[in-house]
Amino acid sequence: MVKSSRESGLERAIQILDCLYEHGRPMVVNELAAAMGAPRSTVYELTKALIGRSILDHYGDGGRVYLGRKLFLYGQAFQDEYSLLGLAEPIIDLLAKESGERAELCSNVDWKQCVLYMAEGQRPFEYKSYPGDRYPLPLTATGRFFIAGVDEETLRQRIPEEDYYLNGRRRITLEQFQADSRKAQEQGYSVVSGLVDPYLAAVAMPITERSGTILTVIGFTFPSGELAANEERFVHLLRGAQAEIQAALSSLDQRGGAK
Amino acid sequence: MVKSSRESGLERAIQILDCLYEHGRPMVVNELAAAMGAPRSTVYELTKALIGRSILDHYGDGGRVYLGRKLFLYGQAFQDEYSLLGLAEPIIDLLAKESGERAELCSNVDWKQCVLYMAEGQRPFEYKSYPGDRYPLPLTATGRFFIAGVDEETLRQRIPEEDYYLNGRRRITLEQFQADSRKAQEQGYSVVSGLVDPYLAAVAMPITERSGTILTVIGFTFPSGELAANEERFVHLLRGAQAEIQAALSSLDQRGGAK
DNA sequence: TAGCAATGTCCATTATAGTGGACATTATGT
DNA sequence: ACATAATGTCCACTATAATGGACATTGCTA
């Protein structure tokens, strides 16, 4: 069971970045190795290499390490080129303003729903959310779209069992999740209520390429109580934003995004 | 000469990220391999792995790849934790406002001077500069501090010969560069004129830990003509900012930056 | 249509890097 | 003071991943 599988250096390096990212704070190399269940010698070697390239940085006086300046630069470069983000931001802002609710742009990263951009609504919100936050796919409205067309085998492999649970209680089954996904695709939008939080609901709509590939998903988050009265309005608003973003994207594609 | 040195996967992966970063645009995998002088098969394998982890993303319909969403998230996490940046930004802003000149916060990344944050001055500037921009160390005022205490052997290895040249003409020798560096350390600040651009000058001052390690360098960039009349004033302003940033940093250290 | 270059996939070989474990050093607590 | 844990370094071994090259596919142009 504890068969010490030998992983590639790149894999280990990514695990290091992910581990630091998930902990959200500088860690001692030893602690890091323990947290990822990797050999200490390996992690020491790799951190040394990564620090040499400024992908990791030393923090504080001691031996704590964390995500480095190079990653900051990569992130900036991403923003400059990932036109979808820059182009969608003002539209998301407008969504939040028109609806008064929190609007988000989400993406599928490592089989988690991941907030890339968020605009706060009028509502004084107890439930916080920031770019970079990640949630289990089965508990989110956006997740319904990310698993579209993915076979069950893959889903079982990639989405961990605990992602169907909240506070130790199962919220949904894979079968229900898939059924939800099919329904969402048919009607073009997805609604979820009380999954990730008993008092929260969400409506989501995908942004796709012409080929049909899903790029991201936009959506609202709001108190469950508001759902019945506003679902239609939210869907209408999202549809407008969806059209606007996709039009902007394809006109950008026309002009050929660089050689 | 063309001895095909076998590199580690991690090393190759970093080369891929750097290559994309430097080109600043999505590239076809083949083109990428050619640009970095690496075996095509290797680059195909690695890009596949990196795309699977969202560290690279497909761009456009075709096979072009570029820095991915995951890097964006890492970058955000870096900003959240790298208190130096958040803490220095308002101070840099103030510097630019008080002096009327462009103020920058720079760091040493891969032996290049790299702009992490910049505040524009009053001056309508022809010479642009953005966070993420990188310059050869020998041509920058900040570079004087980054090579402090580094032995000549290392410098020869890490700083490529062309970094001493501008438009094919040598601007400075390693010996002069080192002499500059020693002088800068003695007087606590560094002045450079007409190196990276015939009509530009810069004044810089380091931000160090209590241990003396250089974290970053702050500085002004302005027309060479202004140097004589304003050097003293700039140094004075920088000294104030330096003290302020370092005080904020050490008080932060006191309260222990997380376990 | 054929010809040629660019792009993407696959596989056997072997240099090398990930691993485990021993050792050295530094903190921490009693 | 001692004991114990935590942290960092070093090294021999071998599983494995980087490599070169062959092959398949697509796009372009003549």
Outline of the structure:
Chain A is α+β, with helices and mostly antiparallel strands and 259 residues long. The first copy, chain A, contains 9 helices and 11 strands.
Write the layout of secondary structure elements.
The structure is a homodimer of 259-residue chains.
Chain A lengths: L8 H15 L3 E2 H8 L3 H13 L3 E4 L4 E4 L1 H13 L1 H17 L2 E8 L2 E8 L14 E3 L6 H4 L5 H7 L6 E2 L2 E2 L3 H14 L2 E4 L6 E9 L5 E10 L3 H28 L5
Antiparallel strand pairs in A: 1-3, 2-3, 4-5, 4-11, 5-6, 7-8, 9-10, 10-11
Helix pairs in contact in A: 1-2, 1-3, 2-3, 5-9
The first copy, chain A, binds a DNA duplex (30 and 30 nucleotides) through helix 1, helix 2 and helix 3.
Characterization of this structure:
- The structure is a homodimer of 259-residue chains.
- Chain A has 259 residues and is α+β, with helices and mostly antiparallel strands.
- The first copy, chain A, has nine helices and eleven strands.
- The first copy, chain A, has helices at residues 9-23, 29-36, 40-52, 69-81, 83-99, 143-146, 152-158, 174-187, 227-254, and strands at 27-28, 56-59, 64-67, 102-109, 112-119, 134-136, 165-166, 169-170, 190-193, 200-208, 214-223.
- In chain A, the strands form three sheets. The first copy, chain A, has a six-stranded antiparallel β-sheet with strand order 6-5-4-11-10-9.
- The longest helix of chain A has 28 residues, at 227-254.
- The radius of gyration of chain A is 20 Å and the shape is globular.
- Chains A and B meet through helix 1, helix 3 and helix 4 of A and helix 1, helix 3, helix 4 and strand 4 of B.
- The structure holds a DNA duplex (30 and 30 nucleotides).
